Give the backbone structure.
Amino acid sequence: MIILDNVYKRYQTDHGPGKWILQGVSLAIPEKINVGLIGRNGAGKSTLLRLIGGVDQPNRGRIERLCRVSWPMGFGGGLQNSLTGRQNTKFVCRIHGHEEDLQDRIAQIQDFSELGDAFDEPVRTYSSGMRSRLQFALSLAIDFDTYISDEITSVGDAAFRQKAAAAFKNLAGRASLIMVSHGEAVLKQFCTAGIVLQGGQVCWFDNIEDALRVYKESLPT
Amino acid sequence: MTRSAFLVTYSVWKALFLREAVSRLRAERAAWVWLLLEPVIHIASLMVVFTLFRMRTVGGIDTAVWLMVGMLAFFMFNRTATRSMNAISANKALFAYRQVKPVDTVLVRISLEGFLMILIAIILFSGGSLFGLDINPANPLAILVGFFGLWLLGAALGLIASVVVELVREAGKIIEYLAKPVYVLSGAIFPIAAVPHPYQGWLMFNPVVHGLEAVRLGFAPHYHAIPELSIGYLYGCALITLFFGLSLHQYFRIRLITQ
């Protein structure tokens, strides 16, 4: 269960505070339900995900995480450029308390990310696809109750996308998913419930089809 | 399975320490050589100057020993303070993981710099005595107390500066300029005892001077240290600023990770 209580968020710009991105978002996301987050570009989808993941803090309001929530996958952070993929992997495993089975986890991540020899090269030499693959493998190797995914299903080549989809399917039952995607098919494939984000407000739908329909109706024709 | 708060913090510190150590020692080609070479260059170049002035002894001890001990003690303070100042911005990417707090990155850098400086000091002192310098830790406890006090003061200033630099971006440059005279006014490159009154009294307000003199006295009991030397003053300053630095981190803990 993740509870957002009257959450407000705006970013600090070079000339004072910017405009409000989220205005009084109150939401309770239940466990074991895959949720799709829908909204137009700049509506604040990534901002909301980052707040849920705890990467950023709201200006007002409160966010409570009553389960283990992952960091947002696929937003590009969490990797140190000067270090190798392996060193970054070790760091992430260590801070999540996997000191004992470190080697197993590393093997698993190295295998899933399909980086090959590049695993021992500095992350700064990686292409964006390689980075996302590593991040994706990292978050999957750590056990969470809820995974947060920001457009992760659209990274990598076709083969990797299939693998990612299969991995998401495997999560079902063990963990839930909160995802942002612009692909209608992807949302329908993974999510049962939906959240539509509009004008800084959210609207919850128990059925993703309803959410998509409302979202499409709101678009200017 | 939930880990206790202490266990989480411990694992974060451990992981951060290892990662900082790797990037400090392997970031560029032979980075560890520069770590050693920087104090050596400072000592050697000042040694040349002192030799030109034909100053064989300072305050009753060999110039080389005086310089080396003072410089390493100063580096203990200076490196700890300056390296930890930039800890937060250097580790921005890691705050994606909720368990990593800004203060962790600063504390880890502080410990790493202290640890490295102890190793560097041991290597250089052993090297110096192999070259025939009269380096004899006559009062090891006094040396450790002095080094520890300087490290603590560096840590405290680093904690404060790390918050200030994050909140006010321009502050980094100002702090850099303010830090420059400290090198000159700490008694690392010329003896404070040679400064006439009343200016000497003013310089004694700088706690770093007390630390440097105390460490020198630990190496050579016959050294003519400044009579006003007070290790208590160094520790007083260090603890007060440490309290202030930790409070700043506590007060701004949310602000520091908000974008």
